[in-house]
Amino acid sequence: QVQLVESGGGLVQAGGSLRLSCAAPRNIFSIYTMGWYRQAPGKVRELVADISSGGSTRYVDSVKGRFTISRDSAKNTVYLQMNSLKPEDTAVYYCNARRDVLFWGQGTQVTVSS
């Protein structure tokens, strides 16, 4: 069983920042596309951002210019730096590893108060 270990969620005021972290096993991290998804109450889970093993990134339009995804190969960790947070960013954020199969983290709550 592959474990993706997330951390960094919490409660923040609108305009604030948080950084999410997700640690993965080395054999997964080195070749899988790593991503962050989120799911708000009553909504479907959506891709927020992902980064390929080669470093290519993509973002959902609503976070472009505010969120940055990055990966640290020395630590086998992917990060999501979230700035200028808005109440609509409130959701459970899930780390994901994707190649021929999918692996998910347990989720971390991000709450942005207005």
User: How many whole angstroms does the radius of gyration measure?
Assistant: 13 Å
Helix content: under 10%
Query: What series of H and E elements makes up the topology?
Result: EEEHEEEEEEEE
Structural class call reads: mainly beta
Major sheet details = 7 strands, mixed
End-to-end Cα distance:
39 Å
Number of strands: 11
Strand content: over 45%
The averaged pLDDT comes out at 96
Q: Which parts are unreliable, with pLDDT below 50 for 5 consecutive residues or more? A: none
Give the CA-based shape: globular
Number of helices: 1
Question: Overview of this structure, please?
Answer:
With 114 residues, this protein is mainly beta. 4% of the residues lie in helices and 51% in strands. It contains one helix and eleven strands, in the order βββαββββββββ. The chain has one helix at 26-29; strands at 5-7, 10-13, 18-23, 33-39, 46-51, 57-59, 67-72, 77-82, 91-98, 102-104, 108-113. The strands form two sheets. Strands 2, 4, 5, 6, 9, 10 and 11 form a seven-stranded mixed β-sheet that branches. The chain has a four-stranded antiparallel β-sheet with strand order 1-3-8-7, with no helix packed on it. The longest helix is centred in the N-terminal third of the chain and has 4 residues, at 26-29. It is globular, with a radius of gyration of 13 Å. The N and C termini lie far apart (39 Å). The model has no long low-confidence stretch (mean pLDDT 96).
